[in-house]
């Protein structure tokens, strides 16, 4: 907070954050009191008050995912460059780049040095003229940003009003958004891994916004999932974008993105269930392609499960 916020922007009057331990500790409370900061908190496990921050975090993680190594341990090496690329990119809601919106000018990039004359000394009267032009530019930029943000708010409101609710019926195969799972002892970062898992089966409804999903290796076998964490499944090639996080999804209370993963983080099985319909007819749930070969079989919880090869040469 000191290095990245106070040393860059000064002491804020108010500070809004979630209820993470780093924000509610006794040390943090003493820090706020010493600097006269009025600390504001969002509701527990409710991300909407920090919606802009959470949306940016999702974008940033998606950008980092394209550069990090397989073990995802070198993300900090790419962070400054990725942030700079984000800051000089055009934002539709701003009508310009974040860099220009903050400084009132465009950055000088390495390629610009080939065509710009940066060696001439400034004269005293030119400095005053530059300050005047910069002030006018900042004033006009602020007015422009206010208009653009109002337009963006109107567009978002119209988009929400035009959205058609997606309904899931009993028996539908779905993607489920959940946190990254990996083998015990691995130190891979959860944030940079895929969070959409499938196929799972809808087995019932609990209300307008909640469905019952069968997850074979879950202790409860059937779990309640909010519809914002579900997407229609149409095959493994239909996996949602890895950085696509459902709006309003809450972090797990005990999630620790920095610590090594444990055995409790193991993935749901890729084995699928055998279903018998109408006597001798046998199907495999979650499979959208013809089965070429049954590769393995096991019994789990008194239920037969099979590993199969489909016509698309995928095992599931």
TrEMBL record:
SUPFAM superfamilies from the UniProt entry: Ribonuclease H-like (SSF53098)
Indicate the segments forming the Integrase catalytic domain, all copies. 1-106
Q: Which GO terms describe its biological process?
A: DNA integration
GO molecular function terms attached to this record: nucleic acid binding
Q: Which domain of life is it from?
A: Eukaryota
Quote the protein name from its UniProt record: Unnamed protein product
Species assigned in the record = Phytophthora fragariaefolia
């Amino acid at each position: 907070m000191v290095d990245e916020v106070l040393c860059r922007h000064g002491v804020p009057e108010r500070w809004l954050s979630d209820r993470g331990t780093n924000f509610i500790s006794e040390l943090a409370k003493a820090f706020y009191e010493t600097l006269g900061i009025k600390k504001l908190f969002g509701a527990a496990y409710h991300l909407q008050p920090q919606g802009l921050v959470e949306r940016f975090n999702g974008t940033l993680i998606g950008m980092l995912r394209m550069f990090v190594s397989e073990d995802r341990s070198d993300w900090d090496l790419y962070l400054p460059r990725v942030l700079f690329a984000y800051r000089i990119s055009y934002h539709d809601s701003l009508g310009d780049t974040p860099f220009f919106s903050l400084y009132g000018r465009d950055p000088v990039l390495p390629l610009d040095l080939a065509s710009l004359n940066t060696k001439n000394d400034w004269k005293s009267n030119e400095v005053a003229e530059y300050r005047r032009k910069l002030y006018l530019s900042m004033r006009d930029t602020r007015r422009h940003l206010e208009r653009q943000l109002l337009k963006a708010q109107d567009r978002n409101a119209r988009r929400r009003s035009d959205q058609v609710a997606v309904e899931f019926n009993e028996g539908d195969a779905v993607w489920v958004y959940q946190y990254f799972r990996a083998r015990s002892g691995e130190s891979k970062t959860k944030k940079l891994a895929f969070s959409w898992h499938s196929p799972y089966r809808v087995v019932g409804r609990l209300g307008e916004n909640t469905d019952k999903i069968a997850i074979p290796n879950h202790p409860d076998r059937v779990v309640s999932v909010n519809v914002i964490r579900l997407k229609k499944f149409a095959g493994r090639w239909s996996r949602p974008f890895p950085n696509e996080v459902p709006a309003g999804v809450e972090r797990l209370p005990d999630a620790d993105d920095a610590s090594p993963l444990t055995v409790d983080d193991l993935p749901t099985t890729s084995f699928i269930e055998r279903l018998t319909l109408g006597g001798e007819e046998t199907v495999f749930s979650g499979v959208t392609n013809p089965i070429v070969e049954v590769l393995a079989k096991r019994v789990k919880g008194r239920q037969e499960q099979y590993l199969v090869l489909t016509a698309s040469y995928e095992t599931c």
